[in-house]
Every structure is written in structure tokens, then in C-alpha cells.
Write a structure and sequence with these properties.
It is a single chain. The chain is an all-alpha fold. Helix content is 73%, strand content 2%. The protein has a two-stranded antiparallel ribbon. Helix 3 (46-69) runs antiparallel to helix 5 and helix 5 (81-103) runs parallel beside helix 7. The chain is globular.
């Protein structure tokens, strides 16, 4: 297979190879964005940090379709887009949010460093788990979306004990046998999922623009959508099991 890919890539024009490699550069930009987000976090500019993490989220959302469109795997076989994507995803989805959660003061002081380390370790293990996605493209377990978890911690601003408990539960759920909808690749009700993701993005922008000082309606909307994304598949599977 490797020799076949090498032969196929040799047939590609220099322009095709340059275009394909530019996709890898675009993906790698996410690592640079993560560094800027971390710098904002160190300065405790939390909303700014989330803006940069949002940019990283957009990059991660569009680079895959572009790569498939340009047939990057065949044209640039010496560069692993899958490995690159996992590296960038770890720093944007796990490492930077882990720092923010640990340093924000939202957790119990004694628990914060231990839970932050738990986020980093569990996230690293999750991203190396070959079973992280089911055959139907659902995520298996809590999918390491610590950027989203951090967003909700800042939005809800629970008491430190409750926030610490929530983080601990998510760490455990990383390895639990339940399934979470992938917003793009899961076919069932994809139109509804994408619609809700669009609404969520608008509400999230409102929250960040107001430094998380938003109405109960915005907060409730964000929470309801999150509950659907996380719990809809579990509810469907439960109903099916009861009917069999």
C-alpha cells in the first residue's frame, strides 16, 4: 500500500502536491492558535482564550473535508494528516483547556492540580484509543472536548466543589461505554444536529462577547443543546433496548 501511494503521488503535478501540503500547513496552524490561546489564558483573558480556541475549532472542522477533496492521503503520502490532526487536537481540545480549568480558580484549590493532570492524562489516553469512534462514527465515552467543558464551567460558574466534582465525573466518563454524537459524521438526524450546532455557535458568540454575563435564556439554550448532543444517542439506545 505504501509503494502504491508513492507511485500515485509521483503522478501528481507539483501544483497538486503543493495544494495538498498546504492543507497540512493549515491543520498545523491550529497548534500556533493553541499557543496564542495559552498566552491569553496565562494573562487570565479567558474570553480571548475561548475566541482563539474557537478559531482552532473552525480549522479542525474544515481541514478534513478540504483534505479529502484534494486527496491529500494519496498526493502527500509521506505526511500523516491523521497524526497531525491528533497532535493539534490534543493541545487545543485538552492541554490548553486543562491549564485554563486548573488556573481559573473555578475548582477547589487542593483538587485543581490533580484534576488538571487527570484531564491531560485521560485526554492523552483517549486520543490514542483506537476505539474512540464506533463503526457509525459516534464517539465512545466523553470525547475529550475539554474546551467545551471549560466553556461551560466559565458560563455556569458553579461553586468550586461542584465544578471539581463535574470535572472528576467527566474524567471517569472518558472511559465509559456510552456514545456521543459526532456533529458531522453521524448520519442519523444530522440535519437537526447541524442546526443545533449552528444555534449553539451563535449563543456561544453572544456569551463570549459579553464575557459570560448573559441572560438565563442564553444559558438555558446552551445547556439544552449540550444535553441533546450528549444524551440523545443514549436515550435512543435505551428506548431500543426496552423495545427488544
Amino acid at each position: 500500500m505504501g509503494q502504491a501511494n508513492q507511485q500515485d503521488s509521483s503522478l501528481a503535478s507539483p501544483l497538486m502536491r503543493a495544494a495538498a501540503f498546504s492543507v497540512h500547513i493549515f491543520t498545523a496552524l491550529g497548534a500556533g492558535v493553541a499557543l496564542i490561546a495559552l498566552l491569553e489564558a496565562v494573562r487570565e483573558h479567558w474570553a480571548a482564550m475561548f475566541w482563539w480556541l474557537g478559531i482552532a475549532l473552525v480549522i479542525d472542522g474544515v481541514d478534513g473535508p478540504i483534505a479529502r477533496r484534494l486527496d491529500v492521503v494519496r498526493v502527500q503520502p509521506n505526511w500523516s494528516g491523521e497524526v497531525l490532526d491528533l497532535v493539534v487536537d490534543f493541545v487545543t481540545y485538552v492541554f490548553v483547556p486543562a491549564y485554563a480549568i486548573t488556573a481559573s480558580g473555578l475548582l477547589l484549590p487542593l483538587a485543581a492540580p490533580l484534576l488538571g493532570a487527570g484531564i491531560a492524562v485521560s485526554g492523552a489516553l483517549y486520543f490514542s484509543d483506537r476505539r474512540m469512534k464506533a463503526a457509525d462514527n459516534h464517539f465512545r465515552g466523553f470525547p475529550g472536548l475539554w474546551n467545551i467543558a471549560a466553556f461551560y464551567l466559565f458560563l455556569l460558574h458553579w461553586p468550586p466543589a461542584l465544578s471539581s466534582l463535574g470535572v472528576a465525573v467527566l474524567i471517569v466518563l472518558t472511559f465509559a461505554p456510552f456514545y456521543v454524537v459526532h456533529p458531522v459524521r453521524v448520519v442519523r438526524l444530522r440535519w437537526l444536529t447541524l442546526l443545533l450546532i449552528g444555534v449553539w455557535a451563535v449563543l456561544a458568540v453572544v456569551a463570549l462577547a459579553n464575557d459570560f454575563h448573559v441572560s438565563i435564556a442564553v444559558t438555558a439554550g446552551l445547556c439544552v443543546i449540550a444535553a441533546y448532543i450528549v444524551g440523545s444517542d443514549a436515550a435512543i439506545r435505551l428506548v431500543r433496548s426496552l423495545n427488544t
